[in-house]
């Protein structure tokens, strides 16, 4: 991973010097010139496109099949249509937020995708069965290709890719 070039033109390689991905991120942040601080942003939401008439299908996938809770869109965004979904942890904190947004012309995201993390392999297999029971495609081809996790990919009713994974 080439993070930046130093003043003498040499590229640093923080991933090679660091033992983990997290350590590489810290090392890269510490190398930023002129910064005496680091930020730790969190992901607020992922916006996924759908056809202009897709609200009901989005609800069928995200709410009824995946199990997220639909939340009202704030004004004035509600007038644009689309729908938002969330999941909360035991403490009530939002841990997933998906914004389904109408787009014309619509093209499904076959590569870019949200990835949902579950706590256990049993949950992964249970959700995969629910996705299949909902009439959606589940692909296990990459189940063991992400070190430390097992995963599947599925596709919503519009053809958008979604990844679901759990620690191995």
DSSP, total strands: 8
Helix-strand string: HHEHEEEEHEEE
Number of domains: 2
User: CATH H level of the largest domain: which superfamily?
Assistant: 2,3-Dihydroxybiphenyl 1,2-Dioxygenase, domain 1
Query: Could you list the spans in which at least 5 consecutive residues all have pLDDT below 50?
Result: 1-16
Topology of helices and strands:
Blueprint: H1 14-17, H2 21-31, E1 46-50, H3 55-65, E2 69-71, E3 83-88, E4 94-102, E5 115-117, H4 121-133, E6 138-139, E7 149-155, E8 161-167
Parallel strand pairs: 1-4, 5-8
Antiparallel strand pairs: 2-3, 3-4, 6-7, 7-8
Walk me through the structure:
The protein is of the alpha/beta class and 168 residues long. It has 2 domains: 1-41, no CATH class; 46-167, 2,3-Dihydroxybiphenyl 1,2-Dioxygenase, domain 1 (Roll), CATH 3.10.180.10. 23% of the residues lie in helices and 25% in strands. The chain contains 4 helices and 8 strands. It has helices spanning 14-17, 21-31, 55-65, 121-133; strands at residues 46-50, 69-71, 83-88, 94-102, 115-117, 138-139, 149-155, 161-167. Strands 1-4-3-2 form a 4-stranded mixed beta sheet, with helices on one face. Strands 5-8-7-6 form a 4-stranded mixed beta sheet, covered by helices on one side. The longest helix has 13 residues, at 121-133. The chain is globular and about 50 Å long. It starts with 13 loop residues before the first helix and ends with a strand. Mean pLDDT is 87; it is low at 1-16.
């Amino acid at each position: 991973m080439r993070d930046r070039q130093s003043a003498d033109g040499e590229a640093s390689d923080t991933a090679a010097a660091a033992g983990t991905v997290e350590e590489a991120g810290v090392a890269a942040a510490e190398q930023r010139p002129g910064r005496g601080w680091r930020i730790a942003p969190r992901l607020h939401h992922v916006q996924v496109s759908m056809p202009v008439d897709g609200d009901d299908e989005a609800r069928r996938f995200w709410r009824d099949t995946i199990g997220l809770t639909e939340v009202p869109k704030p004004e004035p965004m509600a007038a644009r249509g689309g729908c938002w979904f969330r999941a909360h942890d035991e403490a009530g904190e939002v841990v997933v937020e998906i914004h389904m947004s109408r787009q014309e012309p619509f093209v499904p995201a076959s590569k870019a995708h949200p990835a949902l993390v579950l706590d256990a392999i049993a949950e992964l297999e249970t959700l995969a069965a629910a996705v299949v029971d909902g009439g959606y495609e589940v692909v296990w081809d990459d189940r063991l290709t992400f070190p430390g996790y097992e995963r599947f990919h599925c596709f919503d009713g519009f053809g958008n890719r979604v990844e679901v994974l759990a620690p191995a």
